[in-house]
Amino acid sequence: MGEAVLVTDGDERAALAVVRSLGRAGYAVHVCSTRGRSLAGASRYCMSEERAPDPLRAPGDFVDALEQYARRVGARVLLPISEASVLAVLADRERFRDMCIPFPDEAAFHRVCDKPRVLQAARALGIEIPEQRLLTAAGEIDALDPDAVRYPVVVKPGRSVAGDAHGRQKTMVSYARDDRELRAQLERLPAAAFPVLLQQRIVGPGVGIFLLLWDGRTDAVFSHRRIREKPPSGGVSVYRESIPADPALVRASTALLEAFGWQGVAMVEYKVDASTGEPYLMEVNGRFWGSLQLAIDAGVDFPVRLVRLALGEPLPPQPAYRVGVRSRWWWGDVDHLIAVLRQPRDGIALPPDLPPKWRSVLDVLVPWRPGDRNEVFRWSDPMPAVRETLNWFARR
Questions:
Q1: Residue 395 has pLDDT above 90, yes or no
Q2: Which position has the higher pLDDT, 274 or 366?
Q3: What pLDDT does 18 receive?
Q4: Picking from 60-69, 177-186, 276-285, which range would have the lowest pLDDT averaged per residue?
Q5: Are 30 and 69 in contact (CB under 8 A)?
Q6: Which of 270, 244, 243 minimizes the C-alpha distance to 256?
Q7: Residue 373: left if φ>0, alpha if ψ -120 to 50, beta else—which one?
Q8: Closest alpha carbon to 56 in 147, 215, 171, 138
Q9: What's the average model confidence in pLDDT over 64-91?
Q10: Model confidence over 128-141: pLDDT tens digits?
Q11: Disulfide-capable partner of 332 in 238, 267, 307, 309 (CB 3.0 to 4.6 Å)?
Q12: What is the DSSP string of 188-248?
């Protein structure tokens, strides 16, 4: 058995992909989660699972529990999965100094989580970004020229996780059709969500560039396009396909990450304007992403490569990955369909290029197509899908 690795946030699909990847490679993988009976914890590749406090609401207690668990299992590598977990761990990195945490320093991670700062750096590098206005408080909308906002507008908090070491909260992207809706949404946001970006809505397919940077070089590259998302207006991908990595986007994404002194994995997300074909930067996520399993299925095993680099183990060059591999998160796709059926066709929550509802029903309910992979269900490791199904019905 290889070195012990501790993976946090067991209910995240990215955690399941990491556990399966590292377990198959021979590492001893352990999991913690806020519930103790998580998606990744149900995998045959998980050697043990423990419950931990919520890193979002109690980051200090989370780090205490994580350190104790890591020492009990003899973890050599610690892989925080969610943004809240990464923030909590990096803030107390000294407590894990005898373990490998394959992330940049805390300051670099904070900078990449700062969406206005990332977009400003992208503009300086010549990367296209949407038209936007920055509000540091809800009241600033009164001083904004009404003609400066083009509706519908995207209301995007400056950070996905806002707050400090005493407690954090997630923020959500929303849409406003007019001035009245915009003001109402701004008033509902907590103070920690500011600054907020009022951003032009780009309609078109989402494209992700996924990178592993280590010691000043690019170790691995992958790309996919989004086919369906949850919610349909834009969010997490539920059905996506591996595509050739656009060299120009790879160069731009690499330059952007290097500007922040990046080390580790990251997803750089773009939207391609359907009317012009121009890609616009949306954001950067400096951690493992929800659709990670697709990259692994296509031939880019980011978790294994990251851990081997962190441990200084020999690693062959990344081979070419397979194009045209599709991955489907089944219950996420069902949620997508439910949202499509409930939302009026002229609702802002539905993109204008969405197919008719009858076609959406057929697309989602056809269980399999050649080239498709089910993200969670695997015949060789079926229990995570069972647990996810039970949890999905329990939430209804």
A1: no
A2: 274
A3: 99
A4: 177-186
A5: yes
A6: 270
A7: beta
A8: 171
A9: 98
A10: 999 999 999 988 88
A11: 238
A12: HS-GGG-SEEEEEPPPS-EEEEEEEEETTEEEEEEEEEEEEEESTTSSEEEEEEE-PPPHH
DSSP H helices in 114-218: 115-124, 179-188
Could you give the percent of the chain with pLDDT greater than 70? 96
Token output for 332: 């996420």
Query: Between residues 364 and 262, which one has the greater pLDDT?
Result: 262
What letter would DSSP give residue 254?
H
Listed residue (14, 79, 1, 8) closest to 293, CA to CA: 14
User: Which tokens hold the place of 322?
Assistant: 């397979």
| AA identity, residue 54 | D
Domains of the chain: 4-103 (3.40.50.20), 131-200 (3.30.1490.20)
Distance of CA 261 to the CA centre of its chain: 20
Rg (CA), the chain: 21
Q: Residue 187 and residue 176: Cα distance in Å, rounded?
A: 13
Quote the distance between the C-alpha of residue 391 and its chain's center: 21
Q: How far is CA 335 from CA 114, 239, 325, in A?
A: 29, 12, 22
pLDDT score for 235: 84
Give percent of the chain above pLDDT 90. Answer: 76
Averaged pLDDT of the chain: 92
CA dist., res. 162 & res. 222, Å (int): 29
- Give the SS3 label for residue 79: strand
Gap between the Cα atoms of 306 and 102, Å rounded: 7
Alpha helices in the chain (DSSP H): 13-24, 59-73, 83-91, 106-113, 115-124, 179-188, 247-259, 292-298, 302-311, 330-342, 357-365, 383-394
Total residue count of the chain as it appears in this document: 396
Please determine, for residue 249, whether its predicted confidence score (pLDDT) is greater than 90.
yes
